[in-house]
Specification:
The chain has about 280 residues and is an alpha/beta fold. Helix content is about 25%, strand content about 30%. Pfam families: FdhD-NarQ.
């Protein structure tokens, strides 16, 4: 799995004794995103699908809305002590006529693996208006379809099966088919990667898809879904109060505690129908 996992020796203690063994860890490395050579953000991520991550990030920030908005993406200016490229700096050039990110919003360039919006200094800049309004989407799914999604997602979590240490996000259709699944140490990075995949496939707006996340439903994940036009977000854990408020404001369906046939419908329950 290359840079996606790292093997380290561990001393394993159990009730029956102890032993030393190698353990696989999910890799975590910084990725600096630049736009036209200017630093925009640094995120801690699991290497892989970096170009998708960058496209999804810029989509969720309202900078781009189609693959044509990006002229190029290239790794640059990042070498280790032996002069080898670390592939930890990605520079994207916007297409002619696409405005650069708003320089009026000051940023703390570092964002942690668990937080997608904490790097923004101005709270007024946190809420973004989507160009792909999800409220009118006719997407409709059954509880039975939703119930089968977490297991289907887990089956495609190749790195989680090895390390047990990654979040996952997946785009799914009304019949429960998973179109794309991405893993990352950061839940918001996993979402950016699947959104970037969809954007690069020219599938936006995603009015006919739902988004499944392996953890909780936070404000930033609802916002990212809204920015892609996704009308339904399902999470295996709890939503936050702001996540519910934002989903309601955007006319989205928010499902939490999706575990087997049990789930909580917080907003937009009209999209969940009995078969």
């Amino acid at each position: 799995m290359g840079r996606v996992t790292v093997r380290r020796p561990v001393r394993k203690l159990t009730a029956s004794g102890q032993r030393r063994r190698p353990d696989a860890l999910a890799a975590e490395e910084p990725l600096e995103l630049r736009v036209s050579g200017k630093p925009l953000a640094v995120t801690m991520r699991t290497p892989g699908h970096d170009v998708e991550l960058a496209h999804g990030f810029l989509l969720s920030e309202g900078v781009i809305g189609s693959p044509a908005d990006i002229a190029s993406a290239r790794y640059c200016d990042s070498v280790d002590d032996q002069g080898r490229n670390t592939y930890n700096v990605l520079d994207l050039a916007l297409a002619e006529g696409v405005p650069e990110p708003d320089t009026g919003v000051e940023r703390n360039f570092y964002t942690t693996s668990s937080c997608g919006v904490c790097g923004k200094a101005a709270l007024d800049a946190v809420k973004l208006r989507t160009r792909f309004d999800p409220s009118g989407s006719p997407l409709s799914v059954t509880p039975h379809t939703l119930a089968g999604l977490p297991d289907a997602l887990r089956e495609q979590q190749r790195v989680f099966a090895t390390t047990g240490g990654l979040h996952a996000a997946g785009l799914f259709t009304a019949d429960g088919s998973l179109l794309a699944v991405r893993e990352d140490v950061g839940r918001h990075n996993a979402v950016d990667k699947v959104l970037g995949w969809a954007l690069l496939q020219d599938r936006l707006p995603l009015h006919d898809c739902g988004l499944l996340v392996s953890g909780r439903a936070s404000f930033e994940l609802v916002q990212k879904a809204a920015m892609a036009g996704i009308p339904l977000l399902a999470a295996v854990s709890a939503p936050s109060s702001l996540a519910v408020e934002l989903a309601e404001e955007n006319g989205m369906t928010l499902v939490g505690f999706l575990r087997g046939e049990s789930m909580n419908l917080y907003t937009g329950d009209k999209r969940i129908h009995q078969s």
